[in-house]
Amino acid sequence: MRHGRWRFLLAALVPALVLHVVLVFSPYAQAFYLSLTDWTGVAGEANFVGVDNFVRLGDDSLFLDAVRNNAVMLVVVPIATIGLALFLASMLNGRRPLPGASAYQIVYFFPQMLSLVIIAVLWGFVYNPNTGLLNSGLRAIGLDGLARSWLAEPSLALPSVMAVVVWSSVGFYVVLFSAAIGAIPKELFEAAVLDGAGRWATFRRVTLPLVAESVQVAFVYLGIAALDGFVLVQVMSVGPGGPDGTTEVVGLSLYRTAFTYGKFGYATAMGVALFFAALTLAVLALRWRRDEVTA
Fold first, then answer.
1. What would the pLDDT profile of 26-38 be if each residue is shown by its tens digit?
2. Which of 22, 73, 205, 289 has the maximal Cβ count within 10 Å?
3. Burial group, residue 119, by CB count within 10 angstroms (0-12, 13-18, 19+)
4. Angstrom distance (rounded) from CA 194 to CA 131
5. How far is CA 51 from the centre of its chain?
6. CATH fold group of domain 39-294
7. In terms of DSSP H, where are the helices of 208-263?
8. pLDDT higher than 80, residue 290
9. Nearest Cα to Cα of residue 164 among 212, 219, 131, 120
10. Which residues are in the ABC transmembrane type-1 domain (predicted)?
11. What are phi and psi of 94, to 5 degrees?
12. Residues 6 or more apart from 133 whose CB is under 8 A from it?
């Protein structure tokens, strides 16, 4: 019986492991190798250069601009999205839920039904300085002085892109946090009411600690999205990546380096650096939560 069980387990696991190695680990290994070469995208032309590509990254001003912009997004996007989603979810599902909460969730979730390309095109129209909805609305209410070229001014371009990232993401996390809040026993909210706790105290003392795991997952996913940002920047920004590199992100630098300049080895090094940045973010976020639980 014991030998038969092991044969069954091996027969079930080995094909899946082989597929995982071929379809997941093999491309990763190939990418790591190519990042150590000067491959130009032509089969057979790849000379080993060691860590030279990674050394060059430290002297590449455009790549450093991209890293800086991704770092700003890594701070702003998760905090803004999680904060707004927690506020909306707590208002819809807290101790005194708003009427029609399910309808609100559907409305908030609607952007998830659209692809990022469509979202970028739509918001490109919204930000249009002449006929866009944003400037037209400001002029309609007499705030002409606030009308701007949102994607063409260096100080406004990146915040404008980040606003779209938050808008397109917040609905999903409203639903996620709503499910987490809905799983909290109602007796805890009732006890908070009996103790005289207000909305803010109830949220801080009851809701937030009990949805912390969902917040942690949201931070990891939003952090990875902030380290990407390629699609929105590619479609919406001037250049793209402009003006003056203010919306340059690592994904865009990678794409341009590979498909415009033909430096696939160097571009792969950017991708490997981005991979380790995302991996580090996920490990730190998961470790922070584990340390907090064991403290």
1. 888 988 998 998 8
2. 73
3. buried
4. 54
5. 28
6. MetI-like fold (1.10.3720)
7. 208-210, 212-228, 230-236, 250-259
8. no
9. 120
10. 67-285
11. -75, -155
12. 125, 126
Please list, residue by residue across 148-175, b when 16 or more beta carbons sit within 10 angstroms of its beta carbon and e when fewer do. bbbbeeeebbbebbbbbbbebbbbbbbb
Alpha helices (runs of H) in the chain, residue ranges in sequence order: 2-20, 26-34, 52-57, 61-93, 101-109, 116-126, 133-140, 154-182, 186-194, 199-202, 208-210, 212-228, 230-236, 250-259, 264-294
Angle at 234 between CA 80 and CA 84, to 5 degrees: 10
Say which DSSP state 112 is in: G
Give the whole-angstrom CA distance, residue 242 versus residue 236. Answer: 10
Is 257 in a helix, a strand, or coil? helix
Locate the domains of the chain by residue range. Answer: 39-294
C-alpha–C-alpha distance, residues 10 and 13, integer Å: 5
Banded pLDDT at 101 (limits 50, 70, 90): low
Question: Which residue matches tokens 């904060």?
Answer: 83
d(CA 251, CA 248): 8
Which residue from 96, 28, 101, 86 is spatially nearest to 276, judged by alpha carbons?
A: 28
Which amino acid is located at 292 in the chain?
A: E
